[in-house]
């Protein structure tokens, strides 16, 4: 045994040394599946299309000159418009504002939204902002491009050896490396999504400035000290630029920007997350995975995979979000943490979806897609004000609580930052492809146009109000093609019909996808009929609370409007504060396994349920995403456990 352990350790260390030493010039790790460009997927009528339209409306409502305000000031140029309030310009927690922090997300969001909708107004916004950023860099003469006050002086202090870091500050300044990361990711998105060539030299100049002027003048230990402060996925940003330019210095800088405090223990499968600030950690692992893809260093793959599994299994609420009050906690504490008013943060879910996208592209399987679906259908879809299109910070899991949403012009919280992106990329994960196969990962009404194959796949459903999902597959010419459809875990039985004929249930592949492979004619119709039912999930680590689900949707109970605030739009306040007593939330007092039998659909309603038990009179259950501006129960207290 000792000999085997020694050999394994030797191989582990040697593999890491060799991978780090190699001069990699090409991607060494192939993809298992590939996402379609946003422009080849269009949403059809559904709650997701509604969210996309609201997101686009908000992007066009925002004034680019206000978002550029601090960039022009730091470049010595007169601003053209006043800055927005909230985190953009007001002091927060004594760390000052996150000046200019919104612009990087705005760039990536507008880029993806343009590809997703084709609205030329969005493209014109990007062109204007690029011209402004070029002016800022020209005026500054050195590639620096940040909105934070006296940013050059701050990093001169860092280079001199003064590195006082905590989370979230460096020498008292709020998350400066994070802001570099978000600007680089935004510019990368503009370049790759919209083919605007000016974006690449702007990003290269900024990355070179930080690389030559800061990173090259610090020891590895000093960089690790700098990385104590929240820095997003700065490692990913540098891999992106390496990928776009082929210049090895960017990959070398990316290696030095990998946070050892996270990748080393997670590569060993250790759950060390208790007490850590959740969203500070999540983006790093997308960077670790991307670094692996371009170096082959499996330690970083293991870190990303282990982190994903640990978060999903040990740290996730029923809606797919994780943490409470921004921090991870031990799974045994869920029963206590559910009582807090600050539930899972929207930022966390956005970034966990990014990590899932990255890992799925290498190893596509139904479990990752199921997690993606849970988060998207229940946390993301529910987190937006249906009128203003702005995003929640916290979604409380406390029974009987409610949400506060960002105001359009005076919040600019971190969740508002990441929240810009979700409506723009709703079409990304629905489909993916291999050489001669299409994967259906999500059941969302949409049109896929695979131009290279002369293929159109239209997905129609009113799901789960209806149990039918219809696909129309149109080809320019007959061809052999595999249609891979994810088998969801929330159905007991599925029947298949192809071109009007009932077929046997297709074979299930190792990834958890049904495979229908044949030579298809030019016009084909595939129909799936799902058997749907209400089912129960326990709160992780506790038998005191349960949640109810129907198909992919978490059901929540409407609990009225007692003691609610005058407005649900937050400015500096990002948390719903007004609690009600838990004894006002109905309690289940029957065996858990019997609960579904007492939940019945309301006749005539699209998707709502009633509970035929004493204490639940007049209680209406609906998918969580439909409940806004009132109190809700996602989790319900129980006093009879029944099931183990």
TrEMBL record:
GO terms for molecular function: hydrolase activity. The keyword Calcium does not apply. It holds the Pfam family Beta-AFase-like_GH127_cat. InterPro entries: 6-hairpin_glycosidase_sf (IPR008928), Beta-AFase-like_GH127_cat (IPR012878), Beta-AFase-like_GH127_middle (IPR049046), DUF4986 (IPR032275). It comes from the Bacteria. Keywords: Hydrolase, Signal. Residues 1-21 form the signal peptide. Residues 40-427 form the Non-reducing end beta-L-arabinofuranosidase-like GH127 catalytic domain. Residues 570-636 form the DUF4986 domain. Residues 438-531 form the Non-reducing end beta-L-arabinofuranosidase-like GH127 middle domain. This is Glycoside hydrolase family 127 protein.
